[in-house]
Specification:
alpha+beta; 43% helix; five-stranded antiparallel beta sheet; phosphorelay sensor kinase activity; Beta-Lactamase; EC 2.7.13.3; 4 domains
Amino acid sequence: MSNQLSVVDALPGVAFTAQGDGRVDFVSQGWTTYTGRSAADAHGRGWQSAVHPDDLPALLTGWNTSLNGTAVDIQARLLRFDGVYRWFVLRLNPLAEGQWCGLFSDIDDYRGVPAAPLAADLDLRTIIDCIPALVAFMTPDGALECVNCHNLDYLGATLEELKQWTVGATVHPDDLPGVINAWMHAVRTEQPYRNELRLRRADGAYHWFAARALPMRDTEGRITRWVLISVDIDEQKRDKALIAQALAEVSASEDRLSNIINAIPGFVWSAAPDGSVGFVNQRWCDYTGMSLDEARGIGWARSVHPEDAAPLAEYWGALLQSGEAGEFEARLRRFDDHYRWFLVRAVPQRDEWGAVMRWYGENTDIEDRKQAEMLAASIAIERQQSEETLDKVRSELAHLARVASLGAVTASIAHEVNQPLAGIITNASTCLRMLGADPPNVSGALETARRTIRDGNRAADVINRLRALFSKKTITIEDVDLNEAAREVIAMLLGELQRNGVALQPDFTDDLPAVRGDRVQLQQVILNLILNATEAMNTMTGRARHLQVSTGLNEHQGVYLAVTDNGSGFDPLDAERMFTAFYTTKHAGMGIGLSISRSIIERHAGVLSAAINDGPGATFQFSIPATREGI
């Protein structure tokens, strides 16, 4: 700070800082040297007593003009210590937060002398060179006129060389477009210019600068030149960057620790030696709907099932007394009042003398294991229900066969219903096999058992839908999500695909519009196309078996579903014949699957077609209008 004051005091003139209303709060040594008065005499509006009475009104008017951002030279006479008035020119520049800095320069010797070029004004040149910033003067259209010595030193060039340089020679390439646009806007609108940019130093290094340019105007308001001052703010920029980096690293460390604890697949907690809980992780809070403060102490016990609360409390007390690790099974209440089984483990942390310092624990969800135990007891009942459903479907099939007027109806129903019927038996057997594994595949068994019941219901639904289709009765029309319908079919066929070594790749378009139609019939079409594609790859050797099921919108804004395989393909001559009833290229096929599928799609105002791939295999695709009031 003392060095900066020395620079200010060395300026040839009277430098000062003031508020916008003209109240001075600092003057340089030049004030005392010239006026013979103390700095305190100048504070506030005391400085005005040194201004010639005839010049004070014009000076104050010019002062107010400068406050509006217009750079003007204000001339007035100041009283010297010996009683002599000399002419001075006053220039003002903004600082920050409503403060301004100014400089009174003695021009008495130049009054009445023709104006000389700016660079020849020795006193002004000295003042400009003393300013600790890059100062440049430019013509009204923005051409460089002269610069101070700091500019020449920083850029490592002469004034004549700088006049030949382009803006891109000094400005960082990333900042160049913004600098050019801002400067051209200032010149065009005659408004002050502000910017932050990087300027290349003579050694090739870039420093950040805060640049500000103000227009100087004559008495008629015309711009006579631009004054550009660029202050080096590189150190401040680096400091801000370091602070931001440090804060980011601290935040990242905290986030990593929090993420590690919360990523543990279970509920983590800790307790004091007396058993009072002091911490639970976010997963515990999310599950129970309780806050950390609510869980502290023994508040966590409110989440335990009433039937398990007393046994758990007794067991926990025994662990605290023995100081040994242990585990217990209990039901914990979820935020929605649903209980799930958990395995509660507790481990003590001991000091060097063996005393318990703290308890750490984890609660692991074992609901699936508990469900498996109940599922094993009820699986026989569910299988019996599936067999009863199968008998019912077969009875319905026999009845339809007797009353149908066309032989194709019986064949169609047998073909379309046999698939979910076979799935019922397969799923039931698979469920038992999963439960018999060590360890049991609980989640798979649960899902397979659900599919067993669902397949039975679906088989019955197929009978009803096909009866309505061929008897011209009203079918069940609803909004169908084709993606969801396809996923259900794929889930049902996963076992079949795996047994045949087929890798299925779904490619579903997000936000697919719904279609109006019969869900079961559309799923029967999807099922038939996937099974046909699987069979087409059964005899394939020498390459992997790939099958893709994709959905999307066609050019007519219709929803399509395509099944693409890399199997043996088909003869182009069969492209239409394969959709004819009882036409088949398979050894064991009945030849009615594609015929039934096409009739279903056409009933939905859609189109089912087949095409040979550019590579191996074929693609079967159907499309249905995305919006339709009725079918």
